Amino acid sequence: MKALTKPLGAGLVAVTCLIGPSWAHAANSEPLRICAAADELPFSKQGGDGFENEIAKIVADGMDRDARFVYVDEPGIYLVPNYLKKDKCDVITGVDADDPRVATTDPYYRSSYVFVYPSNEDIEIDSWDSPDLKQMTRFAISPYSPVEPKLRDMNKWDDNLNYMYSLIGFKSRRNEYVRYDPQTLLGEVVDGNADVAILWAPEVARYVQASDQPLAMEPVPDTTTRRGEALRFSYAQAMAVREDETELRDALNQALKKKHDQIRAVLEDEGIPLNDLDAASRAAAGAAQATGASS
């Protein structure tokens, strides 16, 4: 896995589960069993309110199969080791397209982290060097994200710790996974308790749209630390299968292509800012060529 990526669990919320030793042996008439986190909005929710729930149903339809959800109580971060790797599930949606633990489909969208702040105040933030950002002291973020090392690099992390721990009742992060609810984090900005939220856009876009207070949502650009370490803030999202399940991956790719417009409509309705996948692919290819030429 990448050393620095989006918060684990930001997208691992929809998993397709099949009974039997291999997807290849399942009849196309069988339902596509979809495991999803039971309570991890905006990605997934028992009852189907998450946008990844919708996308999973669209993809199942594209494969001429019925979607049947199996909701699990574990957070999405555990779905790869506890379900996919143990053959309990066969497909996961919403993983990074270059996740080395799995075989991934073609990406179906790309988005980024965003700066979220009141748009009706005299504030403007579009980069890490923005003067308004440098003056801020309280940041609503998800730990383990690339925002954390950047705040450390800016000498703003330690001063922010007590505030962040207060949001989860000062629970220890050492021995347990604690999810910072994105709606709560956004509410901190609306209520004036946080100066800015810096979050993965897909997890917060729904709440920005629904907010009574107008909020700006500006993409976070990639950057480097003072020591020259690269920090990425945009990621392509794909579906994942076990490494040897190439037939299923190919079938998913066909469904993703067939249902492209419907999937994009779900993402746009959610309010997620979408980056150009083709441009991102060209940029990655160019970077790879440059690295090869210099070696």
TrEMBL record:
Annotated signal peptide: 1-26
Protein name: ABC transporter substrate-binding protein
Record-annotated Solute-binding protein family 3/N-terminal domain positions: 31-270
UniProt organism field: Salinisphaera orenii MK-B5
The entry's keywords: Signal
Species classification: Bacteria, Pseudomonadati, Pseudomonadota, Gammaproteobacteria, Salinisphaerales
Protein family (similarity comment): Belongs to the bacterial solute-binding protein 3 family.
Residue ranges the record marks as coiled coil: none
Gene Ontology biological-process entries: methanol catabolic process
Alphabetical list of SUPFAM superfamilies matching this protein: Periplasmic binding protein-like II
GO cellular component term, pick one: periplasmic space
PANTHER family: ARGININE-BINDING EXTRACELLULAR PROTEIN ARTP, MEMBRANE-BOUND LYTIC MUREIN TRANSGLYCOSYLASE F
